[in-house]
Design a protein that fits this description.
The complex is a heterodimer of chains A (301) and B (288). By secondary structure, chain A is mostly helical. Chain A has helices spanning 2-47, 64-70, 73-105, 111-123, 126-137, 143-150, 165-190, 195-202, 207-236, 239-244, 256-265, 270-300; strands spanning 50-51, 59-60. The chains are: A mainly alpha (301), B mainly alpha (288).
Chain lengths: 301, 288
């Protein structure tokens, strides 16, 4: 009674004063973030207005880098490759991850151990994983073609085929990141209430109906979170693509990230590469806003 | 009598059969979903323990006979793996320590001042591809003559470690009850003392998760090392990639090198399995 009265009267000024002192907690991090994150963003925008190759002088050219990108077919293809890759690398892990979560939500022997094994790929170093998959994809000596032959399928060219390279790379991505979706959905399942299930069972609902009309709607916010994270990570995918296919064959798997890398660190064309970063950033931001909007709607309905 | 009991017992048999079938189906689905994860790692191990002849044999040899450690010996002897391992520890260790020093207070400040706009900034930073920081930083390091140094690598790795630590700590401090801190402050403790002696000890689990995740993400980073490091300052992932492209194409040493890179991370994950699950999902669900 006594202390709550004090807190009640002292609150407004007390809070404002406290708020101000919390600023000092944030300042060091803000300085670091300013130096290694915000400064590079601004510097990138500035560089994008120059014809700038490392080792030679920079010339101011205004928006010309962007105008060139608008008509650059290789860049347009890179955007399409990125969207194709991202779509597959979001949808499949979402479905597989939800299925895995439903399995791991049930009790069975060795569940903890098997769940640890299942989540191992998520933490493994992408380069190391990519090296192993490169060897598995090998058309002559690779183990994947051997497995295909065991079930009577013809050998595949995997990442050496221009049409199969992106789905093959997505296979690695699925293997790598389905565990994260599983963990997020598993968290959702653990938080589900039990009453709706009991009353629905009394009404004679089937297992599928329980899943379709109770579990799925209640999981929606978690699925959206998983979709947001997965989309961001898929658009950013670089290591595995770079190690396994280098954007090839030809430019068949060249995503925006790969195109960016080549412009900056193979051709040292930092002006053009900076313009690509700015466009890339705009795409990511637009997608993130869209997904956050969907998430808000999923929350309120 | 017999006519009446027969259908009942056959029903029971059918029920038991169906239950068994369902159990078998469930076990099968567990196997299907876990086997890709385990098989790739086992194949990696198998490649690293076989001779080159067995590695390129068709049909593939699955079980090394006899297993050999020569691939590991070769990788350490001919490719200075020890040096690259040390580089990775220095870079990821320092980047994580700096991130903790600035990130724990920042997470606390954001949680207590309700400055959620700042977490949006952190979120955008996490969304931006690492490669896009690399171009401006590379240009600046070139100007400062810092390229090919470990200092440049530590600075760039802050791009990874600081956002993740701030993000996890802000989320974690939000879940702590404020009553204890308020009591301490009413008793006259300063904001800093409250943070240092009340909030931080309570946040230890969050700090552990933040530290390990920051270290793992930094350790796993490839492109910063590939672009910024010189021959002697490469981190492990960048070095392993160079083993592949420039020095040899043998599968055994490659698989051995891949294991050396990823084993520390997998061990870290196994030892703190539960905490990582909490950290990753809490971070994801809170911020998404």
């Amino acid at each position: 009674m006594h202390s709550s009265a004090i807190a009640g009267t002292a609150r407004p000024g007390f809070l404002a004063r406290r708020r101000r002192s919390y600023v000092f907690f944030i300042v060091p991090a803000l300085l670091v973030v300013g130096a290694v994150i915000i400064f590079p963003w601004l510097f990138t925008v500035w560089m994008s207005a120059f014809d700038w190759r490392i080792g030679s002088a920079a010339h101011f050219i205004g928006l010309e880098n962007y105008i060139k990108l608008a008509t650059n077919q290789r860049f347009h293809e890179a955007i399409l490759h990125t969207l194709y890759f991202t779509l597959l690398a979001v949808v499949v892990p979402l479905i597989a991850g939800t299925a895995a979560a439903l399995i791991f939500h049930r009790e069975f022997p060795l569940r903890g151990l098997l769940r640890s094994v299942f989540t191992m790929p998520m933490m493994a170093t992408p380069v190391a994983v990519a090296l192993v998959w490169t060897m598995m994809f090998h058309p002559q000596q690779g183990v994947l073609n051997y497995l295909l032959s065991l079930v009577g399928l013809p050998p595949s060219l995997w990442v050496y085929s221009p049409t199969l390279v992106i789905p093959s790379l997505v296979l690695v991505e699925i293997w790598h990141w389905t565990p994260l979706v599983m963990l997020i959905v598993l968290g959702g399942l653990a938080a589900l209430p039990t009453e709706p299930y009991e009353s629905a069972r009394l009404d004679g609902a089937s297992e599928w109906q329980l899943f379709r009309y109770i579990t799925l709607p209640l999981l929606a916010p978690f699925l959206v979170v998983a979709a947001v994270i997965r989309t961001i990570d898929a658009i950013k995918a670089f290591d595995t693509i770079y190690v396994i296919s280098q954007g090839g064959p030809g430019t068949a798997s060249e995503t925006i990230n790969l195109y960016l890398y080549l412009q900056a660190f193979a051709f040292y064309n930092v002006g053009n590469a900076s313009a690509v970063v700015v466009v890339f950033f705009a795409i990511i931001l637009a997608l993130a806003l869209l997904l956050l909007y969907v998430r808000q709607r999923a929350k309120w309905t | 009598m017999t006519a009446a009991t027969l259908p009942v017992s056959s029903l029971a048999v059918r029920g038991r059969f169906r239950r068994r079938l369902r159990k078998f189906g469930f076990a099968l689905s567990v196997v299907v979903i876990v086997s890709p994860a385990i098989l790739v790692f086992l194949w990696m191990l198998s490649l690293s323990l076989k001779t080159e002849v067995d590695n390129v044999a068709y049909p593939p040899v699955f079980i090394p006979n006899p297993p050999t450690l020569s691939n590991f010996v070769q990788v350490f002897a001919e490719n200075s793996m020890g040096l690259y391992f040390w580089n990775s520890i220095v870079v990821s260790g320092l980047a994580t320590l700096i991130a903790l020093a600035v990130g724990i207070p920042a997470g606390y400040g954001i949680a207590r001042a309700q400055a959620h706009k700042l977490t949006v900034l952190i979120l955008i930073a996490r969304m931006t591809p690492a490669l896009s920081y690399l171009i401006p930083l590379f240009t600046v390091f070139q100007f400062l003559g810092l390229n090919n140094t470990l200092t440049a690598l530590v600075i760039t790795h802050l791009v990874i470690t600081v956002p993740i630590v701030v993000y996890i700590m802000a989320g974690h401090f939000e879940t702590l009850p404020r009553e204890l801190e308020e009591a301490a402050q009413i008793d006259g403790a300063s904001v800093w003392t409250t943070f240092r002696h009340v909030a931080m000890p309570l946040a230890r689990p969050g700090i552990v998760v933040g530290t390990i995740l920051a270290f793992i993400f930094s350790w796993n980073n490839f492109v910063f090392g590939a672009v910024l490091a010189g021959r002697a300052t490469r981190t492990l992932p960048a070095a392993v990639y160079n083993v592949l492209t420039f020095e040899q194409l043998a599968w055994g040493p490659l698989a051995a090198a891949a294991i050396v890179v990823t084993l520390p991370v997998l061990l870290l994950t196994i030892f703190i399995q539960k905490e990582i699950v909490i950290g990753m999902t809490a971070g994801g669900v809170k911020g998404g």
